[in-house]
């Protein structure tokens, strides 16, 4: 007769076998995951070794975007976590571009194809973010013909741009108006105000006149609440949109103290967030330091930059602003012949904005525009490639430590056949193999970083030591 002890053993023996089986499988899965992570290390080396034989576009439709968890079921909203952008809880560092005229080209069927070609060119070098205009105030092919009066065909063209970006898994930063007269901007709003009988004396009244501010607020609401006619998704709910931008390169020369522009930023940030609390919001500033940080004024490219009414630190402390922005134009900001001073300025300018964003503001920073004009005889292709390499390297150094350097956007990317729109800064990847190689390599490294961190975080990782990142992302190869 079996004893009570025998019965107990027989009862629990099957459970013990199952327990040991689960433990063995769990340990095997960890080993497999570690092997996968090791493969990512090897893939980095393999990608660099094969860069001359395997163009980015050849595998772009395969794993280019899947590393970021951006398959259709994971096409989540970009969010901010401390000083990083995140998607689905994982870091999202990006390489991006500007093409401001996408909406205008999408209006006409004869030029709409160029919008698709831009995104295809972007995919060929691994870009994941595009900055473009969501405005055209008055004038030819105006989106907003007069305050709150819109051309539906132009609005449908913007719908197409957003839907096409989603198709190619490229996120959009949509700028809502312009400081400059191109495509209307604040000057057009002031013209509308004058036509309505307002006593306005300066384009900078855009920032202070209640009626004109009301025009702008109505435009913001019209864009954010628009239901896309291609996707049936409201703009404020669409994760294709990375962020809203209040204005392209705001300046207020009439008030060097910066008070007028600061008040406008605070008011409009609150307005945007009251309509759309989900998307990120940025100002669109050039990054000039202002009166709130007199010790930083020497970092500006010239003395005039500190008197245009903007203030990098103060502006980005406004409630509702999620990340900082700065632009980089050494060719037009520094007016001397080609010397190492230009490249040194780029390094110093970027590093100080990254450091201030991380240590003072506690938020990511993007370099929303950077470029060199081919129309300036002082700057040749060799200089442009060196300049772009410097921008990429500086961002990558921040990425390697999980820093605030969230992304940089080239001004600007063009497809073939659109050169008549070129302002001198256009890069056509198919015609610029050396530049394309630099941009593609930077994209690959950022995506491999995002991927590696994503895999590691499944097992509760923390930021790796600089020695480890040196192995994974050897930045000096740029």
From TrEMBL:
Coiled-coil stretches: none
UniProt entry keywords in alphabetical sequence: Glycosidase, Hydrolase, Membrane, Transmembrane, Transmembrane helix
GO annotation, biological process: polysaccharide catabolic process
Catalytic activity reported: Random hydrolysis of (1->4)-beta-D-mannosidic linkages in mannans, galactomannans and glucomannans
Ranges where the Glycoside hydrolase family domain occurs: 77-411
GO molecular function list: mannan endo-1,4-beta-mannosidase activity
Transmembrane region(s): 12-30
Protein name, per record: mannan endo-1,4-beta-mannosidase
Similarity comment: Belongs to the glycosyl hydrolase 5 (cellulase A) family.
EC number in record: 3.2.1.78
Top EC category: hydrolase
Organism this protein belongs to: Phoenix dactylifera
């Amino acid at each position: 007769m079996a004893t009570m002890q025998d019965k107990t053993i027989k009862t629990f023996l099957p459970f013990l076998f199952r327990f040991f089986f689960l433990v063995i499988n769990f340990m095997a899965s960890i080993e497999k995951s570690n092997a996968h992570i090791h493969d990512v290390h090897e893939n980095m080396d393999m990608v660099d070794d094969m860069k001359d034989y395997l163009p980015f576009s050849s595998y772009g439709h395969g794993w280019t975007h899947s590393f970021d968890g951006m398959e259709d079921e994971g096409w989540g909203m970009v969010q901010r976590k401390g000083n990083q952008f995140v998607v689905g809880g994982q870091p999202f560092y990006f390489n991006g571009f500007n093409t401001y005229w996408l909406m205008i080209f999408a209006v006409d069927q004869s030029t709409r194809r160029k919008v698709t070609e831009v995104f295809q060119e972007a995919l060929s070098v691994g870009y994941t973010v595009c900055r473009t205009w969501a405005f055209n105030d008055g004038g030819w092919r105006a989106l907003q013909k007069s305050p709150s009066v819109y051309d539906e065909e132009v609005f449908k063209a913007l719908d197409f741009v957003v839907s096409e970006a989603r198709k190619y898994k490229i996120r959009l930063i949509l700028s809502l108006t312009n400081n400059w007269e191109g495509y209307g901007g604040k000057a057009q709003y002031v013209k509308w105000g004058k036509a309505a009988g307002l006593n306005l004396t300066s384009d900078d009244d855009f920032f202070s006149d209640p009626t004109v501010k009301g025009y702008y607020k109505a435009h913001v609401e019209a864009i954010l609440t628009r239901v896309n006619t291609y996707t049936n998704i409201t703009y404020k709910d669409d994760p294709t949109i990375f962020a809203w931008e209040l204005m392209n390169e705001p300046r207020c020369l009439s008030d060097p103290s910066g008070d007028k522009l600061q008040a406008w930023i605070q008011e409009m940030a609150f307005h945007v967030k009251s309509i759309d609390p989900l998307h990120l919001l940025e100002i669109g500033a050039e990054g000039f330091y202002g009166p709130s940080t007199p010790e930083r004024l020497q970092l500006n490219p010239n003395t005039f930059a500190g008197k245009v009414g903007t203030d990098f630190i103060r502006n980005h402390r406004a409630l509702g602003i999620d990340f900082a922005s700065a632009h980089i134009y050494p060719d037009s900001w520094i007016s001397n012949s080609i010397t190492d001073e230009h490249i040194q300025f780029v390094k110093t300018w970027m590093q100080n904005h990254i450091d201030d964003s991380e240590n003072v503001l506690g938020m990511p920073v993007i370099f929303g525009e950077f470029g060199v004009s081919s129309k300036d005889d002082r700057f040749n292709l060799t200089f442009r490639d060196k300049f772009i390499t410097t921008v990429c390297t500086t961002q990558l150094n921040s990425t390697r430590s999980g820093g605030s350097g969230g992304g940089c956007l080239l001004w600007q990317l063009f497809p073939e056949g659109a050169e008549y729109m070129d302002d001198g800064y256009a890069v056509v990847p198919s015609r610029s193999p050396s530049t394309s190689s630099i941009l593609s390599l930077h994209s690959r490294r950022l995506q491999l970083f995002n991927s590696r961190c994503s895999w590691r975080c499944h097992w509760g990782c923390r930021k790796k030591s600089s020695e480890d990142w040196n192995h994974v992302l050897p930045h000096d190869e740029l």
